[in-house]
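Entry:
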Amino acid sequence: MTENNKQGNKIMIKIIVVAIFLALVILVLMKAKNYLKDDVNGKTNLIINNSNVTTSLKRDVFIEGGIIYLSKADIENFFDPYIFYDEQYHQIITSSSTKLATIPMEGTKIQVNSSNKKVKGVLLQKDDTYYIPFSELEDVYQVKVSYIKENDVVVIDSLDRNYTVATTKKNVSVKYRPTNFSRTVEKVNGGETLIIANRSDYPVPDGWTRVRTQNGTLGYVKTNSMGEMNQLRQAIQKEKKIKEPVSLMWDYYSTYVYAPNRTGTTMKGINVVSPSFFALEKLGKGNVKANIEEQGKAYITWAHQNGYQIWPILSNDSMIQTTSEIMHDYKLREKLINEIVNNIVQYHLDGINIDFENMYEADKKLFSQFLIELAPRLNEIGAVLSVDVTAPDGSDTWSMCYDRNTIGKVVDYMIFMGYDQYGGTSPQEGTTAGCDWVEANINKFLGQEGVSSEKLVLGIPLYTRLWKEQNGKISSDTVDVKDVNSVIPSSVKKQWNENLKQNYVEYTQNGATYKMWIEDEKSIEEKLNLIEKYKLVGAAYWEKDRENNQILELIANKLGI
């Protein structure tokens, strides 16, 4: 063999060795993920709904006096995004879908839905962090909390989720990853019960099942190593409180008169009525004025006999100072909420329509907090919470006083009052609700405000305005839809405006110029078309007795009610 051949063989051998080495490195890297550890040593591990969240905690979980504590920041992250510390009364306010709890800094009594409850754990403050006795609040957060001392693991299971178990047929090894090559995280004896821990965010290959052992260990076993799966608890599906779409008729009347007599009448296309039963008492510290009497009770009977749900208006009558006083004080908010709940129960109502207008922009978060505190109380009794809001862009006290994103997450329905684009006090004449303006604002609700279409109800005016220009002055009168044709002279020709989706008239009479952007069956149909286009949950109409029968027929046909 020549020297060159020998040299070539050596090079070839080196290449083969390097190739084998690289192949082994690649194999190790590919398999290493099956041996890496995701549990955390040296501290209490926390498993929430079959996911180990220990590395995501803001503060460590700790146990003191047998009570399991979580930090306020972690509860905010995992359970209640609206939990907050009330500095006025030195208490934590927290809630779930049906419970509202206040936890004071001192003492072992908390309040759950305004009822006192004795607890063992107290609210703690360490290093500027509040720690909540979480294991004492299982009924508030609707969870089951367990501590597995042997493994130093806290397990929290939400009671509204599936809970399925299976028994092992034989001794099995629980694997870190769903492969035989993965490390074993725990050995389980035959006959032991495993909790099925499959999750959509943990894809499991065929033949394997993700499980949680009685020791709180998460891993994978061969599916055929277990017996039949038994579902001990089914996921609770939140049921709609009304058969949608929503079609609400505000039935407004002055707080100084009695409820109207609707006996013998019906409203086609309507499934909710909202009479003006309630209003805040001026500077009344959360007191509610109820205008029901015998006439209101007869109204309730009529509505239920005809299949209408009743979500009465609770108005603040635009009293900005009264509203602010309540919003700034938890005890006044609590008083108001208790009055709402008591009235709904007493009069067999189906919900409430919060109509608070003219509020300070500075009170925006506090108004949202009021709704956050009200929502679980109404959910507990199965009552609907609907809230009226204005278009997103406008003045501080008319538009900027609503946090629409938060409100949209909390309430059952948000009603966009799709009017007045040009109101009665406007220095310039214009339409009450041009379709282009309404549509643009719907897009703002769904886009920049982040409101779900499944919660957004479009408020539609059953009126317009007749504008008058004379001697350089502008004034207007409200005209009901049913009266439009009787107000306009018969000789005046209507002109269709394609952008506004409205008929327009302009004429001169007795030295004055009159203008009207007309609301009628055609313009209202165009607005109802937006409900289908944007998949909104329904419509509401301001207000009863301004409509005609053709409008109700139109609503019934468009919404299928």
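Residues 3-32 form the longest helix (30 residues).
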